[in-house]
Design a protein that fits this description.
The protein is mainly beta. 11% of the residues lie in helices and 46% in strands. The strands form seven sheets. A six-stranded antiparallel sheet has the order 1-12-11-22-23-13, with no helix packed on it. It has a six-stranded mixed barrel with strand order 3-4-10-5-9-8. It has a six-stranded mixed barrel with strand order 15-16-21-17-20-19. The longest helix is centred in the last third of the chain and has 8 residues, at 349-356. The radius of gyration is 21 Å and the shape is globular.
Length: 386
């Protein structure tokens, strides 16, 4: 990424918010907010997601607290499926110094997200929240700011920029992708996607963007409806407004459920890229302000193992192994329980995922298999090297 100076801290450039509260950031830039539901004292975990057209609760959370379900014929659509969903109506969420009320949640099963991130995911906060307020996201301090809707005086003189995407319940941001050739298209601005850039096979085929020498690595990602097989590679440049990034990891998927309404959209712009900007989301004025933060020059993750690891029953398990991948060559098998990586013993899946983001390295992994311990030698491929 090119260097853009940041002078004042993001918070110093903003007016006093109605409320502010902290968030936790997981791998891929995923934002976790803690809130309480109605009068229930337990704190719940929500993903903050501009890629969600509403607000939702996990089905297990609904059952645990005996919330009333209402059957509907409404559907939601994601990269891996289309689902008919029930609703639970007229609830409120309480954050420190702030209450979000009159909420109608659709109900979905987030067991897969819980196993991906290793923390219980109780729901997703999307358009219902963003449409009511101006929201700032400070990735330097991990603070969310909430402001009244309407005109907002954006900071000046700090290298920031105002984007003018197209808004509906989702946000469609223009971006330029360049490799063999350069193409401008629209992409879903998705803070709930723990990736850099995702494009559909049809978009890739029609635009002929990638250089023929680019190697494609089989992998998978998780989304609404379950897991989805994809291919991983890099593209030479991505440009958003005046900001340009080089050698960006790129995922390619078959858009079987037409979430991109191709050719209207080319794919998804994820939060592993956008976490490099502190952001102000102003849905009522149809603008987004972004300014490079201290993560702007963070290296991208070029690692590839072909392993799908998940937190299951209190352990980190290997569930999927891509054929021909480094994980496959190292001898990993489904249901292996990961005990340690490079002498780091933990059952924190985030720790293991961070260790695996070390492209080109070799490591020893201790797994438990059918009650026995085995040591496997894993070489993590760097997808920049051909």
């Amino acid at each position: 990424a090119q260097t853009t100076p940041v002078t004042k801290s993001f918070a110093q450039t903003l007016p006093q918010p109605l409320a502010s509260f902290s968030f936790v950031q997981l791998s891929g830039g995923i934002i976790i907010l803690k809130a309480t539901l109605d009068s229930i004292p337990d704190s719940l975990n929500f993903i903050l997601d501009t890629g969600s057209g509403g607000i939702s609760l996990d089905s297990a959370t609904v059952d645990e607290f005996h919330l009333e379900r209402v059957h509907t014929d409404r559907t939601i659509r994601g990269i891996a499926g289309i689902k008919t969903v029930d609703f639970t109506y007229n609830h409120r969420l309480s954050f420190p110094g702030f209450i979000l009320d009159s909420l109608d949640f659709h109900i979905n099963n987030y067991d897969l997200l819980t196993s991906v991130y290793g923390v219980k995911i109780d729901g997703i906060i999307g358009y219902t929240f963003f449409s009511r307020y101006v929201v700032s996201i400070d990735y330097d301090t991990h603070i969310i700011g909430v402001y009244p809707p309407g005109p907002f005086k954006y900071p000046k003189g700090n290298g920031g920029y105002v984007l003018h995407p197209r808004f509906s319940t989702l946000v469609y941001q223009p971006a330029t992708i360049a490799d063999a050739r350069k193409v401008l298209s629209r992409f879903i601005f998705d803070t709930g996607a723990g990736l850099c850039f995702l494009v559909s096979e049809q978009f890739l085929k029609d635009s002929s963007i990638l250089k023929t020498k680019r190697k494609l690595y089989p992998t998978q990602a998780e989304g609404l409806g379950g897991k989805k097989e994809m291919q991983l590679t890099v593209t030479e440049k991505i440009r958003i407004g005046p900001y340009q990034f080089r050698r960006v990891p790129l995922l390619i998927f078959s858009d079987d459920y037409n979430i991109t309404s191709y050719p209207f959209l080319g794919g998804i712009l994820g939060n592993d890229l956008m976490r490099r900007f502190n952001t102000i989301l102003n849905y009522s004025e149809k603008t987004i302000y972004i300014v490079p933060n201290q993560h702007y020059l963070d290296p991208f993750d070029y690692s590839y193992t072909g392993l799908g690891i998940y937190w299951v029953d209190g352990a980190v398990k290997v569930i999927d192994v891509m054929p021909g991948s480094p994980g496959n060559k190292a001898g990993f098998l489904p249901d292996d329980i990961i005990i340690a990586m490079n002498n780091v013993f933990t059952q924190n899946i985030q720790t293991f995922k961070n260790i695996l983001q070390n492209a080109g390295s070799k490591m020893k992994v201790i797994v438990q298999r059918k009650g026995n311990l085995e040591t496997l030698d894993l070489k993590i491929v760097n997808i920049l090297r051909r």
